[in-house]
Design a protein that fits this description.
two-stranded parallel sheet; mainly alpha; 208 residues; Lysozyme; 9 helices; 54% helix
Length: 208
């Protein structure tokens, strides 16, 4: 597949810095409300329903060690955004659970959160997208219970964001570049996917 010319590393970093807006505002595109078949809508509704406690699934000692190392490394990097250690632990534990549940790389989800909201729980974009992963309110109506205020709840927001990103990846047959464009409402344009992937590289860990 032919790719558009990507901006330079410096341009991406400048674009990423531009996402760190004052509290209450966030940089996000406008996800397009596309028609969903009944089967897809039912599957997505089931995927966001029945929220379980975000306990990491760690069946082996090596899994437990990998999780602990990832948690420690990510927590250290997250300090500049979240000062409270308990808040950092709860956020990372929930993100681990939801990313793994959706079959997404941890670093990709962290990159999306960094670019979309700069890790601010109550961020709102000019388009009305909400929370950590800047979920558009129409998703609460399409696949949730209709209460878009719940998109400010940490686990609800991360679950919706991960399920939506997984949906776009499936639509794009695993093409992360195109899926990120859909997530931002800028499919086929390079700036947003490149900025997220630049942020993602800072979160890559062997447990990813």
């Amino acid at each position: 597949m032919t790719r558009p010319v990507l901006p330079s590393r410096r341009a991406c970093l400048l674009s990423l810095c531009g996402t760190l807006l004052p509290v209450g505002l966030a940089h996000a595109g406008r996800q397009i409300e596309e028609p969903l078949s009944h089967a897809v809508r039912s599957a997505l509704s089931a995927a966001v329903a029945a929220a379980a406690p975000p306990q990491p699934l760690l069946p082996t000692a090596s899994d437990q060690q990998a999780y602990a190392q990832w948690q420690a490394a990510s927590s250290q990097r997250l300090v500049r955004h979240k000062k409270n250690p308990t808040e950092r632990q709860e956020f990372l534990q929930t993100l681990w659970y939801e990313a793994r549940r959706a079959g997404l790389p941890l670093s990709l989800v962290l990159g999306v959160v960094q670019v979309e909201s700069a890790f601010r729980k109550y961020a709102i974009s000019s388009a009305g997208a909400r929370g950590y992963m800047q979920v558009m309110p129409f998703w609460a109506r399409l696949i949730g219970d209709g209460d878009d205020s719940r998109l400010f709840h940490m686990q609800t927001n991360l679950r919706f964001g991960c399920v939506i990103l997984r949906h776009y990846l499936d639509q794009e047959r695993g093409d992360t570049f195109m899926a990120l464009g859909r997530y931002n409402g800028s499919r086929g344009q390079s700036v947003y996917p490149q900025t997220v992937m630049e942020a993602q590289r800072g979160w890559v860990h062997q447990a990813d």
